Amino acid sequence: MGVVNVTPDSFSDGGRFLDQEAALAHARRLIAEGVEMLDVGGESTRPGAEPVAAEEEIARVEPLIRAIRAESAIPISVDTMKPKVARAAVAAGASMWNDVTALRHAPDSLAAAAELGCEVVLMHMQGEPRTMQDEPRYDDVVAEVAEFLLARAEAAMAAGVARERIWLDPGVGFGKHMLRHNLPLLAGLDRIAALGFPVLLGVSRKRFISALDGDAPADQRLGGSIAAALAGVAQNVAAVRVHDVRETVQALRVWQAIWAARA
Ligand code: HH2
């Protein structure tokens, strides 16, 4: 899954048009590089990021999804916590709703997911984006994340979401201490995969990598991103959410070819 963000600095029409063009060009590049799914987002989930109104978020993601859909059949997911945005995205051609709040943000999130009939990604997060890194606490991070995800999957199914449309995501970096929580979680992904739903893993350029490599800035975390993605693949995750598609695809091809040769 390749990340395509439309989170403009400028709110002028000119700025938005340029952002749309740039995002579409980026999507085209990821498709050419071998991505199998795109994740389009119009609101940053970074700690301390400013919230975006639904209308503004729709204005960012909807035209882009339409434009990608007009030229490609690639599956498109929308990264949003708002049912209104998910509805607009699905109407524009998205087939997956990636919700970092696991359908907890709005009272009608569960019902909207059931009604849309799209695939849904239920992600674990302790707390909320603004404050999640303040003081995350777990006794057993893998067990607690697994328990939460299973409960959310059950809530989604009870609301009418089909079992085969549900994906789970451990939410690396979302309300987790950099190494104390993220590392055991990444070492226990097979226990999340064993819950019986496809698992999506997002580790690309995340901060825990810098904690193992002298505070490396976000644009210098590719090696760590690929290492963590492969650790996930080795534990049966079904998809990895990445910024650097070409390099990740190459790593996965080499990895899979080696293991195929062994079998
Ligand atoms: N991580 C980010 C955003 N959305 N969705 C899922 N399902 N899983 C994730 O791990 C996940 C996500 C945050 O990634 P970041 O690199 O901080 O920002 P972005 O990729 O949006 O530029």
Set down the secondary structure blueprint.
Elements: E1 2-5, H1 13-32, E2 38-41, H2 54-71, E3 76-79, H3 83-92, E4 96-99, H4 109-116, E5 119-123, H5 141-158, E6 166-169, H6 182-187, H7 189-193, E7 200-202, H8 207-211, H9 222-234, E8 239-241, H10 245-262
Parallel strand pairs: 1-2, 2-3, 3-4, 4-5, 5-6, 7-8
Bound molecules: 6-hydroxymethylpterin-diphosphate.
6-hydroxymethylpterin-diphosphate binds next to strand 1, strand 5 and strand 7.
Order of H and E elements: EHEHEHEHEHEHHEHHEH
Spatial order of strands in the largest sheet: 1-2-3-4-5-6
Give the proportion of residues in helices: 40-55%
Structural class computed from helices and strand pairing:
alpha/beta
Q: Count of helical segments? A: 10
Distance between the termini: 27 Å
Describe, in plain words, how this protein is organized in 3D:
- Helices cover about 45% and strands about 10% of the residues.
- The chain is globular.
- α1 (about 15-30) packs across α2 (about 55-70) and α2 runs parallel beside α3.
- The protein has a 6-stranded parallel beta sheet with strand order 1-2-3-4-5-6, covered by helices on one side. A two-stranded parallel sheet has the order 7-8.
- The chain has helices at about 15-30, 55-70, 85-90, 110-115, 140-160, 180-185, 190-195, 205-210, 220-235, 245-260, and strands at about 1-5, 40, 75-80, 95-100, 120-125, 165-170, 200, 240.
- With about 260 residues, it is of the alpha/beta class.
- α4 (about 110-115) links the parallel β4 and β5.
